[in-house]
Specification:
2 domains; about 450 residues; about 85% helix
Length: about 450
């Protein structure tokens, strides 16, 4: 079978990955500025309200993360197969899903927020301010969810500098308006919310401008193609599988926190500090997983097996380099990082006890993280869902076996075992992925 996909080089992988790594590095800055600005009001309640409201909305939007991953895989394959019309149609479908999803969030905001406060109760003052904050911010839900689709569409075409540009614009606008609305105009928590709404709609506007070439041809509004039943069914199947997989993965981390709470406030705080180490790893690896998604997706669409294998290999190689560096950094400077994140002596001491697990986590998490990217590019979402279900079962069994005997050590071991289980199970399905280039049902 002729292989027409572009060759894969180290430079190509890094060109895709580095803008995503930089973009991710800017994410914590915005939260820090939001907190710092409302902190100037001299009251505790506004800080808690902005933090709680942002966490709740982030959790709601996270449910739609499947749109980013599914759009990347499907668009990459259409691009690799030379189906320009389908590439444009996929952008239209993603935008429609994003807008409909955002409108649904706006319409269902009352029960969604009520359920969130049942799970995470707060004082009457904080809850009141948080509700005011979310009542404003929710109006940018269509923009944020549609941006998942736009981002996935751009990543599939290796246009990650555009993704970085969107993130920089959103953060810059948000920070500038935060300072003006809160400190200049005295709008308080509502000012932070309004700044974010404007920034998020601005981010979508810039994203659509980056996609302008797709709107210059009639294919994006080829409605028979856009609403083709078979293509819609396939998109729904891919996105549904990814959603279920992500919910199961989230269940592992949520249960990890809840189970850790049973060991006392100090251990819970230590676990929360150490989970930030895992977030650092995820932010750094994202770029290389996205590179795998884009390259594998295009190679899969072009039926270019050699290119697919090299794309998977080179992106994983750079992922390994990053993980090795992160693990070494945690081993050498983990104690200092802990001290920066908390001043409580007992939390510092407890976090140091469990620090070795976060040193091992990047190396043990490399395989599942990179394989996720490879399988997303190939849209092998059913395998991702099924192997995640097996890994969740392994995690539950490990918790049942290890936690009663080893306490929090057993909990960390169970989490790392779930990483290994994901890597092994997805690895065992990789041959079927290659066979699927010839027969997608294999």
């Amino acid at each position: 079978m002729a292989e027409t996909a572009r060759p894969v080089t180290h430079g190509r992988v890094l060109k895709i990955a580095i803008p995503i790594v930089i973009s991710n590095a800017t994410v914590p800055i915005l939260g820090a500025v939001d907190t710092g600005v409302v902190g100037q009001l001299g009251l505790a309640a506004p800080i808690g309200a902005v933090g709680l409201g942002a966490i709740i909305l982030t959790g709601v939007y996270w449910v739609f993360g499947f749109l980013r991953m599914g759009t990347t895989g499907l668009t990459g394959q259409a691009l690799g197969a030379g189906q320009g019309g389908e590439v444009a149609a996929l952008l239209t479908r993603a935008l429609m899903i994003g807008i409909v999803g955002g409108v649904a969030v706006i319409a269902l905001q009352w029960p969604l927020f009520a359920a969130a406060f049942l799970v995470a109760p707060a004082s009457a003052e904080v809850e009141g301010m948080a509700r005011d904050y979310m009542a404003i911010r929710v109006w940018s839900a269509p923009a944020m969810i549609a941006l998942y689709g736009v981002t996935g569409w751009l990543i599939a075409q290796e246009r990650t500098r555009a993704v970085l540009g969107i993130q920089v614009l959103m953060n810059g606008v948000n920070v500038g308006l935060d300072l003006w609305f809160v400190l200049g105009l005295g709008w308080g928590v509502e000012g932070v919310a309004r700044a974010t709404v404007i920034a998020e709609w601005g981010g979508l506007a810039l994203g659509l401008w980056f996609c302008r070439a797709a709107f210059s041809v009639p294919a994006w509004r080829d409605w028979p193609r856009v609403f083709d039943r078979a293509r819609l069914r396939n998109m729904a199947s891919v996105n549904g599988d990814i959603l279920l997989r992500s919910l199961m993965l989230q269940a592992i981390f949520v249960s990890f926190l809840f189970l850790g709470a049973g060991f006392g406030d100090v251990t819970l705080a230590a676990n929360q500090v150490l989970l930030q180490f895992l977030n650092i790893t995820a932010y750094a690896l994202d770029g290389f997983a996205f590179a795998a998604e884009a390259i594998v997706g295009q190679a899969y669409g072009a039926r270019a097996l050699t290119v697919l294998r090299r794309g998977a290999l080179l992106s994983s190689f750079w992922g390994f380099v990053i993980c090795l560096g992160i693990a070494a950094g945690f081993a050498l400077f983990g104690g200092a990082i802990i001290d920066l994140m908390t001043t409580a002596p007992e939390v510092r001491e407890q976090a140091r006890r469990f620090l070795p697990y976060t040193v091992a986590a990047p190396l043990l998490g490399l395989a599942p993280f990179m394989l996720d990217g490879i399988f997303i590019g190939a849209t092998r979402s059913r395998d991702m869902r099924n192997m995640m279900a097996l890994s969740l079962a392994v995690y539950v069994a490990a918790v049942a076996a290890l936690v009663p005997a080893l306490g929090n050590h057993g909990l960390w071991l169970a989490l790392l075992i779930s990483f290994v289980a994901r890597g092994i199970t997805l690895g065992l399905r990789y041959p079927a992925l290659e066979r699927g280039m010839v027969s997608p049902r294999s």
